[in-house]
TrEMBL record:
One of its GO terms (biological process) is cellulose microfibril organization. It comes from Brachypodium distachyon (Purple false brome). Belongs to the COBRA family. Residues 190-384 form the COBRA C-terminal domain. The keyword Ribonucleoprotein does not apply. The keyword Secreted does not apply. This is COBRA-like protein. It comes from the Eukaryota. GO terms for cellular component: membrane. Keywords: Glycoprotein, Signal. It holds the Pfam family COBRA. InterPro entries: COB_C (IPR056900), COBRA_pln (IPR006918).
Length: 415
């Protein structure tokens, strides 16, 4: 479960209007809100209306026929709010707004881990005792998956001047906590893991039907072959911006595949190559991130072309989980399926003599997450195993014994 907080500060009453600032803080360590962005909804407790907004807008105005002269921004009992786009005029902006609803993770970019807007509410009351807290909060980011609790009134938020010498406070502050569940967000997984190693010719592919199966009878048009003549028309056709993936036809049918390859073995170090492949023809993954769990991650020595941050989800000094993401303006944008639809890096790890081994699949990850979603792992029985022995390794040992036996027999013949 993942948590996202919403803070609502009522800070000014004027002519029966309540001015409020709503801020969403994304405290999730490795789940961001990607395009097309968040949608926030609630149900008013009374007959409130939204007179105006700054930094966001309601998707529908609703029935405002009883307001003759100047109709409100929205009269809906259950409004849906969306962020404004980049490039919005400055007189319609406030801090942390106008990013098309995209909110980064707290680990990747704390400065962009919040989104705010200001709303002027009418018919709400004139004091902090008559203002009623809305209910039935919903958050789509951009699809389902979040469940929001009820609003809890807390201590009024304090605001400090730039010199820090004076503080003002909101008249009323309340917050809502929204938790995320991958099972509610989607029926099938969204990524899978494949494995390979230098000591075994076996390449373990993603499990068959990891994210669904090819079935033209029940799911027509669910995938497109890479060399299909209808590929371009399928990409440009209906549904491009609905968030529904259009994937390349594979045995696993996943939009994202993570490949873990044990590449080299040194005396004191070993090297891994990680490749992220995008099979989705409709999605560029902006500010993507990858979380991997492995017991040797407490000895990461060198990383190439990825950013890295250790995570300690279990506490107690256990450092076996690492978060990776692309470098800004280099590979932080994972392009859609095609020649450029991949990102890769190599990780150099120092060996711990007490635990290191290539035997029994120890060199492969325990869990993998992409953009916060748990990826399907192959069965442990299918992992590339370290071979016990081979004829090639025994031959150099037996050949000198054979030569020695021939020489000894020749010497005895002359005695």
């Amino acid at each position: 479960m993942y948590t996202l907080y919403l803070y609502h500060d009522f800070f000014l009453f004027q002519t029966c209007h309540v001015q409020a600032v709503v801020t969403m803080f994304n405290y999730q360590q490795f789940r961001h809100i990607s395009a097309p962005g968040w949608q926030l909804g609630w149900t008013w407790a009374k007959k409130e209306v939204i007179w105006s907004m700054v930094g966001a807008q309601a998707t529908e105005q609703g029935d405002c026929s009883k307001f003759k002269s100047s109709p409100p921004h929205s009269c809906k009992r259950d409004p849906t709010i969306v962020d404004l786009l980049p490039g919005t005029p400055y007189n319609q902006q406030i801090a942390n707004c106008c990013k098309a609803g995209v909110i980064d993770t707290f680990n990747q970019d704390p400065s962009n881990a919040a989104s705010s807007f200001q709303v002027s509410v009418g018919l709400a009351g004139t004091t902090n005792k008559t203002v009623k807290v809305p209910k039935n909060f919903t958050l789509k980011a951009p699809g389902p998956g979040y469940t929001c609790g009820r609003a809890i009134v807390g201590k009024p938020t304090k605001y400090f001047t730039s010199d820090g010498r004076r503080a003002t406070q909101a008249l009323m502050t309340w917050n809502v906590t929204c938790t995320y569940s991958q099972f509610l967000a989607q029926k099938t997984p969204s990524c899978c893991v494949s494995l390979s190693s230098f000591y075994n010719d076996t390449i373990v592919n993603c499990p068959t039907c990891s994210c669904g199966c090819q079935n033209n009878n029940t799911r027509p048009g669910s995938c497109v072959n890479e060399n299909s003549p209808y590929l371009q028309s399928a990409i440009d056709g209906p549904g491009k911006y609905t968030g529904q993936p259009l994937v390349q036809c594979t045995s696993h049918m996943c939009p994202i595949r993570i490949h873990w390859h044990v590449k080299l073995n040194y005396k004191d170090y070993w090297r891994v190559k990680v490749t992220i492949t995008n099979f989705n023809y409709r999605m560029n993954y902006t500010q993507w991130n990858l979380v991997v769990q492995h017991p040797n991650f407490d000895n990461i020595t060198k990383l190439f072309s990825f950013n890295y941050k250790p995570l300690t989800p279990y506490g107690g000094g256990i450092n076996d989980t690492a978060m990776f993401w692309g470098m800004k303006f280099y590979n932080d944008l994972l392009m859609q399926a095609g020649p450029l639809g991949n990102a890769q890096s190599e990780i150099l790890l120092k060996k711990d003599s007490a635990t290191f081994t290539f035997d029994k699949g120890w060199a492969f990850p325990r869990r993998v997450y992409f953009n916060g979603d748990n990826c399907v792992m192959p069965s442990p029985d299918a992992y590339p195993w370290l071979p016990n022995a081979s004829p090639l390794t025994k031959q150099p040992l037996t050949l000198p014994l054979l030569v020695f036996s021939i020489l000894l027999a020749t010497l005895l013949a002359y005695v």
